[in-house]
Fold this protein.
Amino acid sequence: MIRAYKFLMRPTVGQTIALGEMLRDHCSLYNGALQERRDAYRHVSKTSIKYGQQSAQLKEIRAFDPQRQGRWSFSSQQATLRRLDKAFAAFFRRVVSGDRPGYPRFRGVNWFDTVDFPKDGDGCRWDSTPHDPVTRVRLQGVGHVKVNQHRPVLGKVKTVSVKREGKRWYVILTAEQPEPEPLPRTGSVVGIDMGLANYLADSGGEFLPHPRHGRKAAAKLEAAQRALSRCKRRSNRRRKAVHKVAGLHRKVRRQRLDHAHKTALDLVRQHDFIAHEDLKIRNMLRAPSPKDDPEQPGDFLPNGAAAKAGLNHSISDAGWGVFLTILHAKAESAGREVIAVDPRNTSRTCPECGHVSAENRPTQEKFHCVSCGHQAHADTVGALNVLRAGLARRKARQG
């Protein structure tokens, strides 16, 4: 299996400048390749340029500009061109499927934060010597950069990436490892229902409160954004304000990740089988369509956009997508089984008699079956129905 590691780098002042120049030059390569594709399609009878054609030009580009493009790793530049090729592949895939296409855009220097090295030892070298207390990563054109390695890297390092987050620099490794030993069996199964009032409710009647990291930091973020809006563009004061806003967002993101990791780990340790709702989060975050006013052409009727915006903020603050991704990864490493089920009517179906009705849920928290009179918390009922559907799917898959 492949596992990723992320470590904080400790570059010197000169190395920090070199890392910034590396990002700048790879960004320039990305934008130049994008411009070439646009020009070829618009002016040369709709000709499409592929990755292989642009990669073959790298040797000439490096020879023409040795001070900028020639000083960096050839493999990392190829990875940047592959990144553009993947962006176009995703664009055409969305066109075919009928989604919003989203044509690849040019990247500003501040919006290009990652350089990939496809192979350890080719333009980069992860140097973790057991007898050396200081870990370093060697990057072509930058040198040996100190790394704060807070845990050992197991297995053979496959790829290396350098990422900038605000003022900080990180190195991200992927290592190939043997399959880990599964955790001992517990004999427990659980269904979970994710919500906004509670982060999640399980089929056993337990509730996990919502941490609401984004809402807690909203006042500080609002003040920092307001101070940023008053700064003059391209000034040192604005640069400091940008870093402050980025730092606040980074703290919230790390809090969400920490909470998701701990919650997923507890579930994986306690249960052999976990069922959850197959949430389409992207669809849930869509803004409501505008409603034309038939009496006054050009005007619009109220469509609940303000209320939906508040709901979208709460959904994004919950971080369900990140949590489910981490849950599946940890379950795979621990030998647990996770199944996603259709979430429709899970909180409207009575777990006792099976009656389905919107009237079964008179309030957000209360469930009262109009057929048999069964009463319970609505989120617990949803988790029970999710577990039942998950067990049915597992039985059908095995049989």
Remarks:
- The radius of gyration is 26 Å.
- The chain has a mean pLDDT of 91.
